[in-house]
Each structure stands twice: as C-alpha cells, then as structure tokens.
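In response to reviewer comment 3 from the previous cycle, which asked for concrete evidence that the modeling workflow produces usable outputs, we include below a single protein chain processed end to end. The sequence was submitted unchanged, and the resulting structure tokens are shown without manual editing.
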Amino acid sequence: MQNKPSIEQMTFRDWVGGALVVALFVFLVYVIDHQQTFLVGPRTLFEQFLQTEDRKLQEELIGQIVANEPDSALGHYAKAWLANEQNDFEQAVIEYREALKLDPQFAEAYNGLGVAYFNQDDEEAAIESFRKALQLSPNLIHARINLAMAYFEQGQIDEAIRENERALVINPDIAEVHFNLALGYQGRHEFARAIEEYQKALRINPHLAQAYFNLAALQEQNGDKTEALKNYRLFLNVSENEEEFTEQRLQAVSRIDELEKEIDRSLFGQHPARPS
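The workflow returned the following structure tokens.
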C-alpha cells in the first residue's frame, strides 16, 4: 500500500501550487494593465489615436507607437506629431518626411506635414501637402479643413469657401467649419450668408465666443439692433475670464451701451431739448 505523504510534503506541495496560482494572477493583472502593448499593434493604436479628441489619450497612444515601432512609418509619424505638439516644427517636418519615404501613400502624414509647414508660415508648402493628402484620401476631413484655412490665410477666399463647403458635405455638424465658412462669406461681403453660418455654428457649439461677437457686429451693421444687443451680451457671458477676448470685451461693452441708448430713443422718441 502506498504511504501517505508526510505533513511536510503536503505543506510543500500546497505552497508550490499556491505560488503558481499567485504568479499566474499577477501575470494576468500585468497583461490586462498592459493589454495595448501585448494585444494591440501599432496600426490599431494609430486608429484609436485618430478616433479620439482626448489630448492625454492621444499622447499615450502616440507614445506607445514610438515605443513599439520607432523606425516604421507610423513611428516617424508619431515622433513628428510629438515634435509638432512641442512647437518643434522643423523636427516635425523631418519626421513626417521620413514617414512618407517609408510609406508614400500615408495620407495622414501628408496632412501632418502640411500642419508643420503651416505653423512655419509656409502656406504654399502647406497647401501642396494638404492637396496630396486629399488626393490619397478625398474624405480626410481634417485635411480638407486645414486646406481651407491655408487658402484663407493666403487671401484665396473662393477656394477657402469651396473647401469648407466640401468638408460640410462629409460632416455637416462641425461648428468650426460653419464658423470658417461664415468668415469666407463675410470676406466676400455676402453678409446674409455669413450670418446664417454663424448661427449654424452656434447651434452646434453654443460656447463659440468669437461667433457671437462676429454675428453681433454683422447684425448691428444690418440694422438689427435687438439681435446684435442679444449676441453682444451672449459674447460677454461666454468669453468671461478669457484673456484672449479682453479687447473685444471692451468693444462689446461699448457697443451694448450705445445700442441700448439707440433702442431707448427709438422706443420712446427723442426728448425735446431744453431752451437755453
């Protein structure tokens, strides 16, 4: 008959089994915490990067791409994006070019290259890069929007309007595109269309301060004092504590004061002047 294991043997075997279970548990926790590194490739990380607007998450995803494939097209794109975020536009151009050497069909890299050129005030090179991005991917909406902005900066208003209109065909619910389109119409003195686009922008994003100010100015210019007064006030509410709007806030306060006086005079009539 087989001898029973001693107490010492049982304790040792139980301890080994327990240790293996604990080790396996720790490993599984580590894998779960680092599942993107273990289970997700750089291409999937890149797709996640494109789909989020969370800046912190974007930085994390880009960092993982660099860690996984620093010398691939995606790796150079990621390093270029980080350089652009740090205002190192020359390095960004270098890295985007490296990405395009490895993958000449990389539309996103052409768009990024255009952004780097645009930030260096080289609108011509930026426009060329954005066009190449769109040749490769016509529905790359941010390249379309960026191209419109570059055209606008160059004073090519008709081209800017055309590209913004094309962007809205792809996605009609981007407030900033409606705002940019309004600027184009305003530059072409089509004020009724500009007012309409500012209003569309604000329906989508009620916190777009500059749109309230521009809309109010156009409405005042068109003689719609009541609406202008309302939108100047909305501008003050939305832009509160925003340093970039300090000068415009002073202008808005002045215009509100003047419009209130004009509206009062139109409602109650001019008071007769006292005899001297």
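The CA atoms of residues 89 and 116 lie 5 Å apart. We consider this sufficient to address the reviewer's concern, and the full set will be provided in the supplementary archive.
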